[in-house]
Amino acid sequence: MNEKLLEALYSIITPAKIEKFERIAAERTRHVTVAVENLYQEHNASAVMRSCDCFGIQDLHIIEKDNKFNVNKDIALGAGQWVNHYHYTDILYPTTTCIQTLKDKGYKIASTTPHTDAYTINDVPIDEPIAFLFGTEQTGLSEKALDLSDYYVKIPMVGFTESFNISVSAALTINTVRTRLENQENLNWKISKEEQTALKIEWCKNIIKNPENVVKDFMRRIALENG
């Protein structure tokens, strides 16, 4: 059914968009995901979302215990249309809820912190699905996030400054890990064909007018064709 719906939606968008959707969906991954905790500067939040899109990370998890995640459209450049973002706003335990949700999906939790000599982004295990957690510049990740993590990870640095800007840290981390994944021969880390189809349907809906009505009409026609 989804294949037929996608075919119908492709009939009303441009060939250029179709080519782009096909090419980009084939490179998307959920093997790696990103979670951010209490970001309060919208330019950082927007830059992280944009980096996820640029490096093919399909899902972004957003913990909003103290600060609301605000997107600056001039920085994000529409990335929110293409990246799935999940918000955790539970008043008492949003960090726990987010991390437990990720663990239930099979992710190892990797907290990024400059205060440890554990793994670096160059050697942290990536054979299993992994979620990288990033905190605020001033305070870093909460104690709860650190306590619930499977790994501590840092970015190698050789200067006086103790840490990178959060958006830079996220970009460096996912770029490095993406490169490492590209070099893995026996790891199936890209999303499945079925996931690609579902994703392309959502992307089509993002660029057409009255998407719900259009989809409903196409689904009715498909049902009639199938008798």
TrEMBL record:
<dbReference type="InterPro" id="IPR001537">
    <property type="entry name" value="SpoU_MeTrfase"/>
</dbReference>
<keyword id="KW-0808">Transferase</keyword>
<dbReference type="InterPro" id="IPR029026">
    <property type="entry name" value="tRNA_m1G_MTases_N"/>
</dbReference>
<keyword id="KW-0819">tRNA processing</keyword>
<feature type="binding site">
    <location>
        <position position="155"/>
    </location>
    <ligand>
        <name>S-adenosyl-L-methionine</name>
    </ligand>
</feature>
<dbReference type="GO" id="GO:0002938">
    <property type="term" value="P:tRNA guanine ribose methylation"/>
</dbReference>
<dbReference type="InterPro" id="IPR029028">
    <property type="entry name" value="Alpha/beta_knot_MTases"/>
</dbReference>
<protein>
    <recommendedName>
        <fullName>tRNA (guanosine(18)-2'-O)-methyltransferase</fullName>
        <ecNumber>2.1.1.34</ecNumber>
    </recommendedName>
</protein>
<dbReference type="Pfam" id="PF00588">
    <property type="entry name" value="SpoU_methylase"/>
</dbReference>
<keyword id="KW-0489">Methyltransferase</keyword>
<comment type="similarity">
    <text>Belongs to the class IV-like SAM-binding methyltransferase superfamily. RNA methyltransferase TrmH family.</text>
</comment>
<keyword id="KW-0820">tRNA-binding</keyword>
<dbReference type="InterPro" id="IPR033671">
    <property type="entry name" value="TrmH"/>
</dbReference>
<dbReference type="GO" id="GO:0000049">
    <property type="term" value="F:tRNA binding"/>
</dbReference>
<feature type="binding site">
    <location>
        <position position="112"/>
    </location>
    <ligand>
        <name>S-adenosyl-L-methionine</name>
    </ligand>
</feature>
<keyword id="KW-0694">RNA-binding</keyword>
<keyword id="KW-0949">S-adenosyl-L-methionine</keyword>
<dbReference type="GO" id="GO:0141100">
    <property type="term" value="F:tRNA (guanine(18)-2'-O)-methyltransferase activity"/>
</dbReference>
<comment type="function">
    <text>Catalyzes the 2'-O methylation of guanosine at position 18 in tRNA.</text>
</comment>
<feature type="domain" description="tRNA/rRNA methyltransferase SpoU type">
    <location>
        <begin position="32"/>
        <end position="173"/>
    </location>
</feature>
